[in-house]
Amino acid sequence: MTNAGLGGSSTVSATNEHGEPVDVLLVEERPLTIYLDKQEIVTVMTMGSAPELLVLGYLKNQNLIDKLSDIKVIQVDWETAAVAVVTSAEVQDVAAMTQTKIITSGCGQGTMFGSLTEKLDDVKIAKRQLKKDTIYQILENLSQHNIMYKKAGAVHGCALCTDEEIIYFVEDVGRHNAVDTIAGHMWLNGLSGDQCVFYTTGRLTSEMVIKVAQMNVPVLLSRSGATKMGLDMAQKVGITLISRAKGQRFQVLSGGDNISYSV
Amino acid sequence: MTNAGLGGSSTVSATNEHGEPVDVLLVEERPLTIYLDKQEIVTVMTMGSAPELLVLGYLKNQNLIDKLSDIKVIQVDWETAAVAVVTSAEVQDVAAMTQTKIITSGCGQGTMFGSLTEKLDDVKIAKRQLKKDTIYQILENLSQHNIMYKKAGAVHGCALCTDEEIIYFVEDVGRHNAVDTIAGHMWLNGLSGDQCVFYTTGRLTSEMVIKVAQMNVPVLLSRSGATKMGLDMAQKVGITLISRAKGQRFQVLSGGDNISYSV
């Protein structure tokens, strides 16, 4: 949790299939409206555990801010469900920038601005070899997390991993909030993704691949399946795409030659 | 599938955890840009099986069009990934209407316009009794569907059901596409939801409840879990909210007194 982070769940009374009372833990979902230099950008629905990083990553992934140093303050106010981002240099015409919206199939923040897909033309991710056992090790490390998912469900988890450890793990009601939060963490801490593996519990859709490509992470690992467009994007930028990674199983959809299966 | 509906999946060659080649079926994900009287509204990512109904339901759920008779033509053109909606009466200022975006935690179309949550203040859903066995019957009927989910995963399914049968079932890469497609089907065919049960494979977030409330469906049934805000909304409008409905199990989060457990 960050400074302004809030608790992620609450227990409610429900009734099971036998008509018996049961306590159910539900994840919190809160609106948070982002204002960039007093201009309203968007309202995201979030669990709220790391709002500053979420906003930071959102602004970066939507290409609304180029340099971290341009940001003077990120002030979260849950009372008004608003976060005020103050930049030193007035950012360029946000209205024009946010004109072309793309509502994606992603959970959470569905919006990406049209220019983003074009930007992908320049992106080429450097190859990275990965051992089969390393994938299992990462999945093993991740089994220590997924806290809220195990307790309450209805969330998606994302993690930035090295072969040995999990650098940062976050859950949110939407998988894109989780991805953006990790992007914010990487940006704030000047982390490079080129030696990392990105894990998500969510589906490998086009937007997920685009965002991971923007983070320059060469391997994208998911417990879920992929869409054809997600695969196409991964092949285009050279990301190793691994789906259905659970327990001892996984499917390499692209970049299979980067995986060494010998144990 | 509707007239302009496209196939939903394609098979690709992948590699399993043993380095062996495997065929994997992936769901298609396609961009589709909606133009309302030549004004660009949004680009949704969709499987594409029922684009006309999806667009129809989207326009209704976003309150962009009030009367079905106002729509003269919905022309889908996959070549340009665009759908042109022509109305008889020029719809009121879309720009102003789309100003307040809410990117929700929903899969698929994440955008809802701010006014929507306010509109909910007027909504009150009439109670509807439901037998425990009816819930099982509905789940049994649904087991005949979820076609793409079983084959390729990475999709969400939604269904409009009566106690006896499934009126309409649809899958899409985003659960909100699926919900909107059903809304479009109901709108086009003048179906009332007051005697229905709405089923979704997706999570019961605030936006999901809002949309089902707009369809006046008194019971919302999901295989997944809910968020606290989703529950709050359901209690506010009087929707019976049932989560974790799988096999012989389910949890009634709100409206428990509407369920008769006696067999």
Write a short abstract of this structure:
The structure is a homodimer. In chain A, about 25% of the residues lie in helices and about 35% in strands.
Write up what this structure looks like.
2 copies of one chain form a homodimer. By secondary structure, chain A is an alpha/beta fold. Chain A folds into 2 domains: 30-101, Ubiquitin-like (UB roll); 119-260, Cytidine Deaminase, domain 2, CATH 3.40.140. In chain A, 26% of the residues lie in helices and 33% in strands. Chain A contains 8 helices and 16 strands. Chain A has a 6-stranded mixed beta sheet, with helices on both faces. A 4-stranded mixed beta sheet of chain A has the order 4-3-6-5, with helices on one face. The first copy, chain A, is globular, with a radius of gyration of 19 Å. The N and C termini of chain A lie far apart (38 Å). Residues 100-113 of chain A have low confidence and may be disordered. The interface between A and B is large, with 67 and 67 residues.
Strand and helix map with partners:
The structure is a homodimer of 263-residue chains.
Chain A: E1 9-16, E2 21-27, E3 30-36, E4 39-46, H1 51-61, E5 71-77, E6 82-87, H2 94-97, E7 101-103, E8 111-113, H3 115-119, E9 130-131, H4 132-142, H5 147-151, E10 156-161, E11 166-172, H6 175-188, E12 197-200, H7 206-214, E13 219-222, H8 228-237, E14 240-246, E15 249-254, E16 259-260
Parallel strand pairs in A: 3-6, 9-16, 12-13, 13-14
Antiparallel strand pairs in A: 1-2, 3-4, 5-6, 7-8, 10-11, 10-12, 14-15
Helix pairs in contact in A: 1-6, 7-8
